[in-house]
Amino acid sequence: MELNQFTDYSLRTLIFVALRDGEMSSIKQIATAYAISENHLVKVVHKLGKLGFLQTVRGRNGGVRLAREPENIGVGEVVRSVESFGMAECIPPRDGVCCFAGVCALQAGLQKATQAFMAELDKLTIADLVGNRAQLKRRLKK
Q: N or C: which end of the chain has fewer CB within 10 A?
């Protein structure tokens, strides 16, 4: 299984912002730190703001910061909010046409695998992801 780029950028954005301890972060700062497109990041930040993970402030002294404490933002919650898990044609949300849909063991197996994957992510919070703050901050300054 591979998370899509939007999910990857979402998690990286939340990690970056969590490391700033409530200070405002700009999209430019985040994009520069990860060497990713500001245009893509604008969409990510907008979505995370709408979902209530980020607080966005416009203006000269604006930027983004976490909307909740990092220990109150579950990784599983974030991933479910921004990721689509239609791994095969027969798995929601795709629900495509397959002559085996509903009788194939693959469908049930993929659904169980996805549930197990998400159960592991549900054990993590953004606070867990930034537990090694000093190492993470050193990497971002390179």
A: C
